[in-house]
Amino acid sequence: MSALAPDGPGEMGRAVVVPSERKKEAKDAFKINQFNLVASDMVSVNRSLKDVRMAACRSKTYDPLEVLGRTSVIVVFHNEAWSTLLRTVHSIINRSPRQLLEEIILVDDASERDFLGKKLEDYVAKLPVPVFVLRARKRTGLIRARLRGADKAKGKILTFLDSHCECTPGWLEPLLYEIHKDRSAVVCPIIDVINDDTFEYITGSDMTWGGFNWKLNFRWYPVPQRELERRKGDRSLPLRSPTMAGGLFSINREYFYEIGSYDPGMDIWGAENLEMSFRVWMCGGTLLIVTCSHVGHVFRKATPYTFPGGTGRIINRNNARLAEVWMCGGQVLIATCSRVGHVFRKVSPYTWPGGVARILNHNTRRTAEVWMDEYRDFFYKFNPGQALWGKKDGDIGVVGEVEVFEERKGWRMRGIKQTEVGDVSERKALRERLKCKSFHWYLENIYPESQMPVDYVSVGEVRNKQSNQCVDTMGRKTGEKIGMVPCHGMGGNQVFSYTKKKSFQTDDLCLDVSSVRGPVKLFQCHGLGGNQKWQYDKQTLTIQHVNSKQCLGTPSPTARDTPSLGACDGSLSQQWLLGNIDWK
Ligand code: UD2
Ligand code: MN
């Protein structure tokens, strides 16, 4: 027990030092769970943690516990390590008032190691709180595993946690209190970082919230000034977050079902968090990050498990959280971490061989089809299919039209039209039944800072009439020149939206000109016009930079692949067609 070993490895959330003679063992074991298993096993399952709440939170008082009601905590897992799973369980028990805890439900999603036999059942039987173990014989994926856990739960509130979490002092009361005040509140703690190598506990920032990009990846972004003002600068009040990370949240059990629980048509992993976020906001609920509640989570750089249908591994999008915490942790001003979500993008431009792409795309499409109305075009234009490297046909395991693009040393890159989406009619009926608002309403009212422009004129390629080439970001970053290459129709770097604010935007970057002679660069969109304001004329087909009055044209002979900026002359080289333009 921690009280008996205050200096033990990892106590108070300190970093663990693996002795040098075990370094090799630690390195070899890392790949099993994609974290340092040796370090995790050295830390007590009962380790102590600091109270990381801000001062204003520590002095808050809540309604009596009987009024708040009890929660069932549901933890689903697939091949979790014994030590991280049990530390999750013990931290729940050690740091939750007994009167608030109905039970803990562990759902084993067909683990293949460590959890065979009755070892876990025997272990939890000795704990002072009822802990149930449910087993799935066949892998169902985390979404259906959570549904199964919820089905068994008796508590008034459901609380979901990942299987490698640690709850800190005072984590539960503020979550339940917000639901007590408003039963349609879906509440998340601040997710702190448990370092995947040292198991050090690192406090996350209360100045980031959830968003998403055009690929429909969840991302952390800085909380805008607007939301700070709404709370009159009181950072201990809950944040109204546009989206949630997905793994850690509480919800009233009845409300969970009223609002459509989860989409059971989603497989394995991914996108269920955006689906729930859109649904909650659009159908009358609220999504909060309760800044007085802190729970740690082991963020990994890669996923440890196989995805049925392939052996691919995917770089974890949550990795951005690591970078964000380093840069924005503590009290750093917003400006210094304003580009975190972008700069630290670790996601490969192509998805990886295997079933990963198929599963993620399937889940994401279900979200887009049911909830995003016309804005689903952003996802489809950006990802018209998938381009994947594989050796054999089975490697990509997708449904859809397959075409070989490129071959290199036995590897082939194939493009896939689209993964199948399955039947979404029930989810659409749910949306009708709940009389949910539109995605436009969501963007306008809940997430005006979104990378998806609230009002836009077109989304698609920007094609030159003379050369038939397309404007292309070339994968470059903010501050760099844009390029121009043959149009490839594969979305990605060639997709721009012409917005009602008259900017040309691609994900979070805009075409920007700061000197009359150019060049045209990419710059973080600021939404204020200025250097990012362009006038597209659908008669003359010209794209004129408003400040400089110059027109966009094909590259000059000296500029190679960089589009030029020059006096408007009405020539064919200054005429542009905007992809799939849909004038509204
Ligand atoms: C994040 C969420 C995670 C989930 C996921 C998208 C956080 C901290 N985590 O990714 O909860 O919303 O995004 O789907 O917000 N698991 C199964 N069966 C499977 C695969 C996973 O039970 O087939 C379990 C796994 O053991 C873990 C949980 O599901 O407890 C989430 O998986 P993860 O930790 O790999 O996801 P993470 O944190 O990268
Ligand atoms: Mn996780």
From TrEMBL:
Signal peptide: none
Keywords: Disulfide bond, Glycoprotein, Glycosyltransferase, Golgi apparatus, Lectin, Manganese, Membrane, Metal-binding, Signal-anchor, Transferase, Transmembrane, Transmembrane helix
Membrane topology: Single-pass type II membrane protein
Cofactor(s) recorded in Swiss-Prot or TrEMBL: Mn(2+)
Pfam family, one: Ricin_B_lectin
Residue runs in coiled coils: none
Primary enzyme class: transferase
GO molecular function, one term: polypeptide N-acetylgalactosaminyltransferase activity
Gene3D superfamilies, A to Z: 2.80.10.50, ppGaNTase-T1 linker domain-like (1.10.8.460), Spore Coat Polysaccharide Biosynthesis Protein SpsA, Chain A (3.90.550.10)
The enzyme's E.C. designation: 2.4.1.-
Subcellular location(s) of the protein: Golgi apparatus membrane
Biochemical pathway: Protein modification; protein glycosylation
Domain called Ricin B lectin: residue spans: 456-579
CDD domains attached to this UniProt entry: beta-trefoil_Ricin_GALNT1-like, pp-GalNAc-T
Record InterPro entries: GalNAc-T, Glyco_trans_2-like, Nucleotide-diphossugar_trans, Ricin_B-like_lectins, Ricin_B_lectin
Cellular component GO terms, alphabetical: Golgi membrane
PROSITE patterns given in the database record: RICIN_B_LECTIN
Record GO biological process: protein O-linked glycosylation
Principal location listed in the UniProt entry: Golgi
Record family assignment: Belongs to the glycosyltransferase 2 family. GalNAc-T subfamily.
PANTHER family: N-ACETYLGALACTOSAMINYLTRANSFERASE, POLYPEPTIDE N-ACETYLGALACTOSAMINYLTRANSFERASE 5
Protein name as annotated: Polypeptide N-acetylgalactosaminyltransferase
Provenance organism: Ridgeia piscesae
